Amino acid sequence: MNKLTLSQAFEGFLLDKQASGRSLHTISSYRNSISKALTFFDSDPVVQSMRRQDWIRFFAWLQDEHVSVPGGVAPRPPCYLSPKSVANIHTDLSAFYTWATSPGVELVGDHILRTIDRPLIETFSKTEIAALLKACDDGRAVNLSGEHRARSMRHRDRAIIHVLLSTGVRASELCDMRVKDGPECQEHPRRRQGQGTRQQAAHRVLRTYSFHGDLALPLAVHERAQT
After folding, report:
1. Count of H helices and E strands in the chain?
2. Is a pLDDT exceeding 70 seen at residue 59?
3. Cβ contacts of 56 within 8 Å, gap of 6 or more
4. 11 and 106 in one domain?
5. With DSSP H G I counted as helix, E B as strand and the rest as coil, what are the percentages for the chain, rounded to 5?
6. Judgement on whether residues 180 and 87 belong to the same structural domain of the protein
7. Full-model pTM
């Protein structure tokens, strides 16, 4: 069994996943999780020497001490990671151990991450979901004449909420989805990148909606108002 440092093992994992055709979103998520692990394990230990207690200390640090600077255009103050973000990192590192214990690789003998529970994520209640969907219909737009009319984006907004809640797709993956034409012309919304099963589920949800507006735009971009 070859002795590799954690950073070397991570690099082998990323190369393998890139070669197997993982999406840019997935590789980016892996890199983000790996960077946090290497920040904590700054001595770059030999991966075979790592024990369950090492990873428990890492996840405790993530939840209680690590402060992240949110990305995006709008400036936001540093903050602690949400349980969902920590769970995503757990999933990414679990994928690393699945690879490291797989036949032909076998860098380590045990899948340590399977012995460590993912953080619990508080989900929306049925009442909260109903309120979100109702808000899509309750909003009203005002035209130049001062007349109130139904929002042109209400169908899109309901679809976005259903996709996010029903599939677990990332917001960035949702924003990259494309719908070339109306549902009568295109069975599946297009996507640029993304993980297969989640996007397939998203497509099934989206096909239940009749969209309005400029459907060549990204799904999450403002639609052209109907006249």
Report:
1. 8, 6
2. yes
3. 116
4. yes
5. 50, 5, 45
6. no
7. 0.63
